[in-house]
Specification:
With 482 residues, the chain is α+β, with helices and mostly antiparallel strands. The protein folds into two domains: 65 residues; 384 residues, 4-Layer Sandwich (Purple Acid Phosphatase, chain A, domain 2), CATH 3.60.21.10. It is 13% helix and 26% strand. The protein has seven helices and 27 strands. α6 crosses α7. The chain is globular.
């Protein structure tokens, strides 16, 4: 698919094909929630094996040739937004032009220069527009007092906040409720993602993975309008999605129940989406929506068991090498206060919901042709190779959001040595990590094997990885720090 995202436009551009033909682009349906009046998103089915251009008011924007062949160079990045001038731990979002807008602008400029075959974003695009808390005015609720509520998220438990938070309770609070003082909106999406990535967006095709900041309680309306793969041009179960109403039916402004517990005892309107698969000759990419999977509290377990059954059906169709792309890592090491208990008291584990679902659906282990699990969510680089039958886990949450500390903490005398982590969802993992900005360049070899390099802001290699390194009793991780 090709998307054109145009500010203050009354009509869609056209897609000009190499053959000289003109292909109409049609507008996507506006979100039912949020504020997106100032932007028009148009789309069309993109041709294989030939270049094309988007033509807008006489200006031609050239796009690359897209082929079904196995991509040889894939750029992976994630967690690319900017927090902004928040009360606690503010992050500067200013910069010198498009290339120096916090680290994401630098990462994007470098990626566009090198012309990859494919770009994978592992989620979380909009930070400045997704606050953790809302102050609800009296006019909205009808109360004599203002009310402060925690926006629903099934565990945003990386080390970005000083105190762990578990805003899962009997009520569901969304920044996209009718009358919200802080709904999802186009300017936040534009400034956090589209401006710094403007050159990279046209450099190669993208695969977008939904993060927890794209839940319907947060930036979900913009996600479904701007980036999600669903389209009415595809129809059926693959049609464009929309976040459902974020308050129960019958709730009227100025006359809320007191106390207010929206959706208490009901299903929360988060709208997680089913997985899909992209087949590229010798490589399958399975894109999995883990946005609603509780990190350290089991949440939506039955839903994720059903979703991983869909993944199992995809993986059993054939033995084509595959990667699983999902925002929340299945296996991640975090600060002890942010995860489920680990044998070592210095850290904890996530994601407990996915771990339970995977073990239920794959009791004998994931199939051998699943060659990698690629994620973000944790604002750092973390790579784990397992001593046994389990694909390596890569976490590349280094795209621009303020970084968190590397876990587990390496020994000062051997800071680059893999750290053995036992009791890791009934396995031993060998973990390396860094707290540096950058993107990962992955290259696909024969038989599904792959190598990669984590590249820093100055173009330096921070880590080198090889899918063949982890093996029983090798003591090696999947990556080695430089």
């Amino acid at each position: 698919m090709a998307h054109a995202v145009v500010e203050n436009a009354a009509s869609c551009p056209t897609l000009a094909l190499a053959s000289g033909a003109q292909q109409a682009m049609t507008p996507r349906a506006k979100p039912l929630l949020g504020q997106f009046a100032g932007v028009l998103v148009c789309e069309t089915v993109y041709p294989w094996d030939q270049p094309a251009s988007v033509v807008l008011e006489g200006t031609r924007h050239n796009l690359p040739v897209v082929r079904k062949a196995t991509p040889r160079r894939i750029v992976v990045l994630g967690d690319s937004g900017c927090r902004g001038q928040t009360e606690r731990r503010p992050q500067s979002c200013v910069g010198d032009g498009y290339d120096k807008i916090w680290p994401f602008g630098v990462v994007s400029a470098e990626g566009a220069q090198d012309r990859p075959d494919l770009i994978v974003h592992v989620g979380d695009y909009n930070y400045r527009g997704t606050p953790h808390r809302l102050v609800l005015p009296r006019g909205l609720t009808g109360y004599r007092r203002t009310v402060t509520v925690d926006v629903f998220d099934t565990g945003d438990l990386d080390d970005e906040d000083d105190d762990p938070g578990f805003p899962i309770g009997p009520g569901y609070w969304s920044q996209n409720i009718a009358g919200s003082p802080r709904p999802d909106n186009w300017p936040d999406w534009r400034d956090d993602f589209f401006i710094p990535s403007s050159r990279l967006l046209a450099a190669a095709p993208w695969v977008f993975t939904r993060g927890n900041h794209e839940l319907c309680s947060r930036a979900g309306p913009g996600w479904f309008y701007l980036l999600d793969a669903g389209s009415d041009l595809l129809g059926g179960a693959r049609a464009q999605g929309h976040c459902p109403p974020q308050l129960p039916a019958g709730w009227r402004a100025g006359a809320w129940p007191d106390p207010a517990l929206p959706f208490d005892g009901q299903r929360f309107p988060t709208l997680p989406t089913p997985p899909f698969r992209l087949k590229l000759d010798g490589l399958d990419l399975v894109v999995f929506d883990s946005s609603d999977a509780g990190d350290a509290i089991v949440y939506a377990r039955d839903h994720y068991i059903e979703q991983y059954r869909r993944v199992a059906a995809m993986l059993t169709e054939n033995a084509t090498p595959a990667w699983l792309l999902t925002h929340r890592p299945i296996w991640g090491v975090v600060h002890r206060a942010k995860g489920i208990p680990a044998p070592d008291p210095d850290y904890g584990f996530i994601n407990v919901t996915q771990q339970l679902a995977v073990s239920h659906v794959f009791p004998a282990g994931l199939p051998a042709h699943l060659k990698a699990v690629v994620s973000g969510h944790m604002h750092r680089f973390q790579a784990t190779g397992f001593d046994g039958r389990r694909p390596p886990q890569l976490v590349v949450g280094t795209g621009g959001m303020e970084l968190s500390s590397s876990r587990p903490v390496p020994a000062p005398e051997e800071p680059k040595r893999p750290i053995p982590v036992r009791g890791f969802d009934r396995a031993t993992g060998y973990v390396v990590g860094l707290s540096d900005f950058g993107a990962m360049e992955m290259r696909v070899g024969e038989g599904g094997e792959w190598t990669s390099v984590l590249v820093g802001l100055a173009g330096q290699a921070l880590a080198a990885c090889d899918s063949r390194w982890p093996s029983p009793r090798s003591g090696r991780s999947v990556c080695a720090l430089k």
